[in-house]
Amino acid sequence: MINRGEDGMAEQVLVRGEHVRRVAVASAIGTTIEWYDYFIYSTATALVFNRLFFPSLSPAAGTLAAFATLGVGFVARPLGGIVWGHFGDRVGRKAMLVASLVLMGLATAAVGVLPTFATAGVAAPVLLVVLRVLQGISAGGEWGGAALMAVEHAPPGRRGRYGSFSQIGVPAGLIIAQLVFFTVTNSLSSEDFRSWGWRVPFLVSLVLVVVGLVIRLRVEESPVFARLRASGERSRLPIADVLRRRPRAVLVAALSFIANTALGYVFFAYLLSYGTSVLKLSSTTMLVEIIVGSVVWLVSIIAGAIWSDRVGRKRVYLVGSVLLVVWSIPFFLLVDTRQPWLLGLAVVVLNLGLGATYGPQSALFAELFEPRYRYSGASFAYAVGAVLGGGFAPLIATALQTSTGTSLSVSLYMVAVALISLGAVLAFPKTTTVTED
């Protein structure tokens, strides 16, 4: 005799599991596309933007100016965190994911058709800054939505694992960005690349955005937000509520992120410029090294997230934070040898630390804030940490190396920000109990 009640329940569990996996994959793919858009800008900044948009400056000053436009996007991210967070807590997580992806895609594609200084004069760098601000606003809220969709759909005890899907989009987007640039730079002459080839990665974004939209439109709203909407318990001013009720959580979360984002941008933005302009290594060599490091970063994110489900977020963060502190000095000592295998060792170990401090982040930030202002709290803390850490890291690193003539000054800067984040991690709550939704 068939027990239809048990069969029906089993079928519901299977359907639910399939949907959760679909949400996780949609989070990963959408975030990958979003960060591909973001990272092709940083790669182009390191390779050609100083010549195209700031040709009247010296090479060093042009690089500083180009990295300054990179930092402008970070300044806009807290604004994006507030705007997307407000509507994410009021309207829904899914709608904000779609809107942020569209904004990022359009801004990125517009960079691909932007006139250079030779054509438009001062208007060219001005327009570049405006488009970078739009990218920053988009990135400020996209991460929070992707992270919460994955975490809030996750089964109990697996929030770290499912939250990692939004995290792997960052190194995955970086890998794709580097591969596209690697292909373009090796398919064209240097003259053709500087003339028009650099635009190709930006225009490819339009195709990727369409793919991301199709995937994200197919997933359901977060069940946590659906319950909030049904019960009418949504916050009227979520950013005000989170700053009033959880200021310590916002501060600790933001400070815990500055080392990851600062050292991350030293790795994939400044290192490319340093390797090609100071060490005189080929762009192909540097792009390959960054791709290798990014693959290690992606794998370590997944491993760190799964580990955090077993031993707690704080313990994994501590391991990664300590590694970032102690590896900052050896990192540039190995890079400065100009030996590809030693350079590879430097980026591999660094990215193990980055993965351990990024993999558990989605679950941790979600657990720090109540559902009714969770989007605002997580997004704002993430954006502020990004500004304090990664926003001007390549600019600071370039200025330090240029003024001192040694990479040791950059290593000391890395140690300083890593120590700040280590202190914040020590202030994390000791419990691994998840806030019940």
Automatic annotation (TrEMBL):
Membrane-topology annotation of the record: Multi-pass membrane protein
Keyword vocabulary terms for this entry: Cell membrane, Membrane, Transmembrane, Transmembrane helix, Transport
Domain Major facilitator superfamily (MFS) profile: 23-433
Transmembrane feature ranges: 57-76, 97-118, 124-150, 162-184, 196-219, 249-272, 284-307, 316-335, 341-359, 380-400, 406-428
Compartments, as annotated in UniProt: Cell membrane
Name of a matching Pfam family: MFS_1
SUPFAM superfamilies: MFS general substrate transporter
Full protein name: MFS transporter
Alphabetized Gene3D superfamilies for the sequence: MFS general substrate transporter like domains (1.20.1250.20)
Native source species: Amycolatopsis rhabdoformis
